[in-house]
Amino acid sequence: PDSISYKGAIGIMQIMPATYDEIKKKLNHLKDIYDPESNIEAGAFYLSSLIRQTEKLNPHPKEIIPLALASYNWGIGNIKRLIKKLKTTSWMKLLDHHPEETKNYVKKVLFLYLKYSGKLL
Predict the structure, then answer these.
(1) What Å distances lie between residue 88 and 21, 49, 56, CA to CA?
(2) Average pLDDT over residues 10-32
(3) At what angle do helices 61-74 and 76-86 cross, to 10 degrees?
(4) Which residues have CB under 8 Å from 121's CB, separation 6+?
């Protein structure tokens, strides 16, 4: 809960302080960003918001989650700029243009989801 990334993201969900402050305006019951329950709730709320936003960009079921995860890691603004620049919302076409950290993050989260959901053969 006390971890801070080299970019300044804080806590279990690695939320940027400015993002947490924006979320706290909507979920005013949240405590400190270092509080594990508040950090996880804020992260889940933010990821849910990103899923809704990426669903509007590309409603294909196999595209939404990778785009939302990339947005969580790299920022929705960066994803939207890349989509505009490349004129595509296809995850596979955007993939090569993401930072290595983001590619690895999305790959790891999807792998862990499949592993722990029992969907990985």
Answers:
(1) 31, 21, 13
(2) 97
(3) 120
(4) none
